């Protein structure tokens, strides 16, 4: 169990370096001999490099060079590349949180959350290359969580159930974002959306996949659904899937609400 008697200083000191930097709970470095840098300036330069050439292209020396400083100048502000990546991750999660609106239901708000998640992956494809090493700890990522919890504030469920819903929705958004990122990468390299969907392999798959070996996949392939050979009646697979996820949440929440109402009526 956590030590409730830890001092505030001890508690904050236990945070990773990049997290402390994101909250501004580190001492500001003294002015260097070539002029003043800033952490936002360093992070912005690193994001520009990652957007252009990927996360692996980000290094302290390249970021310093892009700013016209030496690597040692950067280390006075950000002590490691890991800390810099943590700051980059938090920076691109700094999105405007929409205000509460009485005319917008929770399902539409969750859709908006997922679309914002997908947009992050679309605009910053390297985001998915960051290893998840802990729960969110930085201010902007926590604001996104706070947004989702606000959406669920009237749900008749406990906090653990809310966190599970949050993980479910966030994971779906992440998966959709990664799919869109990979398709965009293929198109940028000269491919096409049809190629991503495997349309050009339809004839070959029909030769290879036989009903005796793939009894359940075979009819799906032959219907044209597997490679998009025929028009999709549900139009957008990702939106369709999200609606089914929301249906499941709604069914669970309504069942919990009905059970609570029944218990209150019986008292």
Description:
61% of the residues lie in helices and 0% in strands. By secondary structure, the protein is mostly helical. It has two domains: 15-92, Orthogonal Bundle (Arc Repressor Mutant, subunit A); 106-196 and 234-266, Orthogonal Bundle (Tetracycline Repressor, domain 2). The model has no long low-confidence stretch (mean pLDDT 92). The longest helix has 30 residues, at 159-188. The chain has helices at 8-13, 17-23, 39-53, 60-67, 71-75, 81-92, 106-123, 139-151, 159-188, 193-196, 202-208, 217-223, 237-266.
How would the blueprint of this fold be written?
Blueprint: H1 8-13, H2 17-23, H3 39-53, H4 60-67, H5 71-75, H6 81-92, H7 106-123, H8 139-151, H9 159-188, H10 193-196, H11 202-208, H12 217-223, H13 237-266
Helix pairs in contact: 2-6, 3-4, 3-6, 7-8, 7-9, 9-13
Keywords: DNA-binding, Transcription, Transcription regulation
DNA-binding region: 59-78
GO molecular function: DNA-binding transcription factor activity; transcription cis-regulatory region binding
